[in-house]
Amino acid sequence: MCRLLAYLGRPLQLDHVLLEPEHSLVVQSYQPRKMQEALLNADGFGVGWYDTDAERLPYRYRHTYPIWNDINLSDLARYVQSQQMLAYVRSATPGLPVDLGNCQPFAHEQRLFCHNGYIENFRHTLRRPLHDLLSASAEQWIQGVTDSEYLSALILTYLETVPLVAALTQALQTVTKLAQNPFCKFAATLVISERDRLVACRYANFDNYPTLYWIKNAPGYPDSVILASEPLFPGSWHPCTPRSILTVEADLDVQSTPL
Q: Is the pLDDT of residue 20 over 70?
């Protein structure tokens, strides 16, 4: 199980939200408080962000190092300023390799994808059924072998005909149906960023939902919304409702819709 972080709001240096909080994503990588399926997130990390120029695609910095071992990250995070950021630290599902192709966030045009969760015994249960549902372009987009990337590719497949929230809903429903017989566990806390918008979900087909919290206009972070697997600092954090989709619009309006 991974740890996620997303920011949307007033432009800031990435280190202010990525590295400086007392329970930052770096601390969560080696001392998480709310993980139930693993102890560490040491199998790589990634950060994606947007330029203020709407014509430019989002940027990414990813590595297979544990995030605490990357000596370049602090300089990069002090240098880059952005109004929107998505990051994660990885705890690899057993049996799935630690390589750069499996490091999130995944990117497609103006979208970034980060997934915390898993499909139980993915290679032996749902990899083939999911592969068979993908459009040709979504299948060609895949670079790695993880359940996270296949789930993102399924969303991209549905995005060819419906908007993002509908595509995410349809993907969750499809995987849930495929996982019924024979039953396999499926958990998906997912954050997708579009330029000036965040869409997230907290979902599982069993009673163990990966955590996700949000806070708006936190002290030191005015005019912003932060999403995180675990609160970064004390404050009025709201747990996302299980089996729901959370949207954060450009005006920072936050809405939760049950699935």
A: yes
Q: Which residues of 8-17 are buried (b: 16+ CB within 10 A; e: fewer)?
A: bbeebebbeb
Residue 28 CA to residue 68 CA, distance in Å, equals 10
Provide CATH code, domain 3-258: 3.60.20.10
Q: For the whole prediction, is pTM greater than 0.90?
A: yes
The pLDDT, as a whole number, for residue 54 is 79
- Name the strand (E) or helix (H) holding 89: strand 81-89
Helices (H), the chain: 14-18, 25-30, 73-79, 122-125, 127-133, 136-141, 147-159, 164-178
Contact between 174 and 157 (Cβ < 8 Å): no
- β-bridge pairing 221-228 and 213-218: antiparallel
- Residue from 63, 62, 58, 61 nearest 83 by CA: 58
The answer to whether residue 2 is catalytic is yes
- Whether 51 shows a pLDDT value over 80: the answer reads yes
Q: Which residue has the tokens 């962000």?
A: 49
Which member of 2, 114, 201, 240 is catalytic?
2
With beta carbons less than 8 A apart as the criterion, state whether 138 and 155 touch.
no
